[in-house]
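seq:
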Amino acid sequence: MLSKRSIRGKFIWQLVIASAALIAIFSTFLYSYIRHSLYQEILDNLIKQAKYISITIPNKHAGEKLTSFYLQKTLNLNAKIVPKPPNIDGVFFTVLEKNRTDYAILYYPYNFKEKTYLKLTKDISSISHLLNKIHKIILFANILAFAIIIVYAFIISKMLIISITTLTNKLANLNENMLKPIKIKNLPVEFQPLGKSINLLINRIQTFVKYQKELFIGIAHELKTPLAVMKLKNEVTLIKKREPREYIETIKLNIKTINEMNKMIENILKIGRQESDQFEPPVELDIIDYLKKKANNYKLLTNQEKKELILDLKPSKYKSMIQPTLLNHIIQNFVQNAIKFTPEGGKIILKSMPVVNGLKIEVIDEGPGIDEKVDLFAPFKRSGNKSGVGLGLFLAKSAADAMGAKIYIKNRKDRKGAVATLVIPSTLACPIC
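struct:
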């Protein structure tokens, strides 16, 4: 009914075996305790009776039987004076079976001078019969409990497997055109981290599916257009004989176009390299210290462009398991865009602050701002009249998705400019080392 590789099957068998062992151990201890208690009660009574006989009937010799109606009929006892048995020192108690009858036998010191003992024999068949009934009741209870455990194991395993089955069916029925995040609130607490990881994966798939066609079409368009312009310019130049200056201008234009195409190809290659960077093992990194070190390089660029970089980093330290290369892709792209769009004499602010369950990093510029209706993270999307391939933010978004972080860009509310934001959660979706 259940596969050997089934989690539910393994759980059922482990629960049944563990519970059966526990019941067997408990039943054994229970029966042993009852048996010991009954025999101890018999022993205590025999010792009391032996003490009473020793006091009330003294001066008897070995071989004599002590007979009375009280002993034989009322107490169901046989009393006899016997020589000291070998290997017995002090009070000795035992239970023997003879002719299908169980007897409790007590040897009790009677006369120390003559070295005689009082031997009391009591028929305890009724007690043995009671113990047999108790043993059968416990055995029956064990069988019944074992059956209940099996039913319970099937029920509880089905309840526990519901969440796994839900996740499995969700993943099995994934369709790139109908991807929907899993509702984490409906999952048990133990499965919520798994649900979050699956949602991050779904988000990455959605992003990939959304942009892949735009990326391929954009690459073809961005490369085909300059090639067509170069071809047409060369054909026009060769139609008739021209001055050397005109040939030089055509060659210079071709070189410029080739340089632009090379720059675009370099950015396209970055996409491939970033895919491998996503498998970089995460390391423990003080992000604040990392930003301070990177800021030294950024200040060189801003000073060269006659702009100012201002740091506002809080808290003083923030350690996290993170992939430094992917983090660098994002921050570097934000800062480069801020430098590009901020006019001379303007200020660029690199800011960080703690937020609920994470750290927020902002790069604030004094540029013209953005059109918030345009998806700037799509490939080959450009903002403003500045030159560029339009793949920087696409790479930054891919890096953030790979880390499990979030990025977005909005216009400043206090003045003209844009704010590029990276939110790093306290628990990142880094690949397993």
